[in-house]
Amino acid sequence: MALRIRTSALTALTCAALAAGTVLTAPAVAAPKAAAPAFLSASQLPPHPTSTWTAGPVTDGFPEELGLCVSTEGVPSYDYRHRQFWTDLDTSAVQLTVVTGTAAQAKALAKHYDDLIRTCADRIEESSPDVEAEGRNYGKLPVEEGARVRGLHTETSWGATDIALLSVGRDGRTVTVVKWGQMGDFRNAPVAAFKKTTSTAVDKLY
């Protein structure tokens, strides 16, 4: 049986995580009809040393896999779509796209999401005393209107350890968030490959 069905410590903590960050109060503006943003393909994820990636269908709605750090709380009702990815082992990924009404709204939303990711480790430790969390900033990427990559490591008192890489990027009025995760720590994080994946994700939107 594929180990991808294992619930990692990060996923288990999702329900305990606290929503935080700047609330976006600007009303949503109805976006004109346009081509839907494109998503990553399985081959564009960071290569796995022993398994291939599988891509699920593009699905409407906000993915619960981002709920530990990123949520829709305080955000207008935009057009959310996502795609999940997985390997035969305990490595998974997800991409979210959010189409806003204007470039200004997208810029504010991208900053809001990045702020939530930046403060995620502190919020995890505040809400879960049995968990130690550390976040790292891997810098900006010069693609379209820009992107930023961050890392998050969590370790529970019972020894479960997980590493995640998360990025937020923007092209015009569309924001994308990409998350990669597996068991391990920062030594297991494919930062360079994930930066390439992030640049591809933003550049591929339109």
Outline:
With 206 residues, this protein is α+β, with helices and mostly antiparallel strands.
Secondary structure blueprint with pairings:
Blueprint lengths: L8 H4 L41 E2 L3 E2 L18 E8 L4 E9 L3 H16 L1 H8 L3 E11 L5 E10 L4 E11 L2 E10 L7 H14 L2
Antiparallel strand pairs: 1-3, 2-3, 3-4, 4-8, 5-6, 6-7, 7-8
Describe this structure in words.
The structure is a single chain. Strands 1, 2, 3, 4, 5, 6, 7 and 8 form an eight-stranded antiparallel sheet that branches. The longest helix has 16 residues, at 103-118. The radius of gyration is 16 Å and the shape is globular. It contains four helices and eight strands. The protein has 206 residues and is α+β, with helices and mostly antiparallel strands. A hairpin with a 4-residue loop joins β3 and β4. It is 20% helix and 31% strand.
Query: What's the gyration radius in Å?
Result: 16 Å
Continuous helix count: 4
User: Strand-residue fraction?
Assistant: 25-35%
Q: Which regions have little confidence, pLDDT < 50, spanning 5+ residues? A: 1-23, 25-31
- The ordered string of helix (H) and strand (E) elements is HEEEEHHEEEEH
CA(first)-CA(last) distance: 37 Å
Shape: globular
Mean pLDDT: 88
- Biggest sheet features: 8 strands, antiparallel
Class computed from helices, strands and strand pairing: alpha+beta
Q: Could you estimate the helical fraction of the residues in percent?
A: 10-25%
The count of strands amounts to: 8
